[in-house]
Amino acid sequence: MTEAPDLILHNGRVTTLDPKLPEVTALSIVNGRVAAIGSDEDILAHARSTTRVVDLRGRRVIPGLNDSHTHLIRGGLNYNMELRWEGVPSLADALRLLKEQARRTPAPQWVRVVGGWSEFQFAERRMPTLDEINAASPDTPVFILHLYGRALLNRAALKALGFTRDTPNPPGGLIERDASGNPTGLLVAKPSALILYSTLSQGPKLPIEDQINSTRHYMREMNRLGITSVIDAGGGGQNFPEDYDVIWRLHDAGLLTVRIAYNLFAQKAGAELSDYERWIGMTEPGAGNALLRMNGAGENLTWTAADFENFLEPRPDLRPTMESELEPIVELLAENRWPFRIHATYDESIDRFLTVFERVNGRRPFETRFIIDHAETISDRNIERIRALGGGIAIQHRMAFQGEYFVTHYGAEAARQTPPVAKMLSMDVPVGAGTDATRVASYDPWVAIYWLTTGKTLGGLALYNQENVLDRETALRLWTQGSAWFSGEADVKGALRPGQYADLAVLSADYMTIPPEEIRRINSVLTVMGGKVVYGEGDYSALSPPLPPASPDWSPINAEPNPASRSAGASGTAAGTAARACHDGCGNHCSLHGHSHQIAWNNPLPVADPRLFWGALGCSCFAV
């Protein structure tokens, strides 16, 4: 080491993910990169008067987490407006939060609960009713999004939207009506979620100054959870370049605290090829820098390829015209060496996509990566086809939120390999992990890592056999080194070794040793991105950079603890409820549900043949 270190961290348990030196106690940082790793004695010997030295006090350190599929750019614009139900232990608490926020929210703004929760996290094990929502907020519009399947609106929201008995159902969606034909407030995706997203988009937006503030707070929340990089998968209504103005302003002001690689999402049905022809003339993969860079096309390449992931409804069949619309787009991208990604939930859809990719590759061999996103029901055959074409698979924890519904619809046996993550890894396909936040799943990576390492849903339902549950180091690799492949940055991020970016998180608990149920309550106490502290709390709060209060002043962020702080509390939390939802003297630990016996007591049996559900190899909740 020739230059004096800018920062030294010592007296820790540093998981490097470097096979040559997998765990050390100290590391040094120079010019935003890891300079050296090793023992306290070796690293501290290089400290100079200009070096900041931080005592880790024995804490676990990991490489910064990298969400390979999320929607930070869109989510940041709305974060300060949204009431989060993550970590709320009961429906009664959720309705109380809704009522309090309705009182704070001025007209014409809405109260929005958008993603990150499941009714199975609640002690009551049920959804809120429309009557309860109307009682909690009689005058302020309320929009509550539940998974990919439905939205609940109160009467004030129906009035604000102008929904009446004469409002027609949109294609692929249903407006539930009462006996008189009037909308009740329930919107149902059948199976298209466009009815949900198009309705949400009609709500008031924040002014640009508040959108900037909101995005800063959302990135701070990412940092507080140990995230230092994301890949943004675009989204409907997220037009390039106009809807990237906020994130570029933050970049130019030096205020980005998360590295962002972004994909460009085709916007208008029937004009997708034109979108990509225009964008190819405007930008190119890698345009930008290490903090903000263009990553290619997708996740939507053409709307006819959208296989909506609503496990409450039957699998959708893609249109016969899909191939003819997808193929020229893929050929254009291949000719211009653009990486691309495509949303693909079901194996039947993946099979058709890969046939198109193989045809194009036969004429114009792929020279860069492509990504299959989600892949819950992918077959071994199609995993092999992806590997042969040089592609990768980005997986998310959507089953942690929808697992109960998948089991109800397809059966417990089908769920055991949904998605088949261990099989993907054994077949040597690049795999990256993420959340697909925020409209359905939580942005909290520790909920996703909990799912990967336990195989359980938020409600405690054990989905997988041990063969499809990952060990903790493998799960961490998917969230670091695995995800780095998906932005073409595996050589510079994902491990703590000399030459790689100094992106890291010092954890609130030792991820490698704590009991499994405590994993989803982890957060970072010190997060470093590019050698600079971007978040600190407790012993490290003095190192944390300042952040202005959330704006507008009625934001839920100012009134409620953030979700991970909420779930890091004492025993009354959602995590605690899921881990132990029965009486204290219970000696029966069900092989499917643990101590969350209400899943069996209060819900229909999630199999076609009830005889397969009960017993020593299935549910034994009846024995309590």
Structure, explained:
By secondary structure, this protein is of the alpha/beta class. The chain is built from 20 helices and 23 strands. It is globular, with a radius of gyration of 24 Å. Helix 10 (322-335) crosses helix 11. The longest helix has 17 residues, at 208-224. 53% of the residues are buried. The strands form 5 sheets. The chain has a 6-stranded mixed beta sheet, with helices on one face. A 5-stranded mixed beta sheet has the order 9-10-11-13-12, with helices on both faces. A 4-stranded mixed beta sheet has the order 5-4-1-6. Mean pLDDT is 91; it is low at 566-589 and 591-624.
Overall helicity: 25-40%
Question: Strand order across the biggest sheet?
Answer: 3-2-7-21-22-23
Strand content: 15-25%
Q: Looking at the structure, what is the overall shape?
A: globular
Give the radius of gyration: 24 Å
pLDDT < 50 stretches: 566-589, 591-624
Helix count from the secondary structure assignment: 20
What is the terminal-to-terminal distance?
Answer: 63 Å
Structural class by SSE content: alpha/beta
Average predicted local confidence, pLDDT: 91
Described by strand count, sense and barrel closure, the largest sheet is: 6 strands, mixed
Count every beta strand, where a strand is a DSSP E run of 2 or more residues: 23
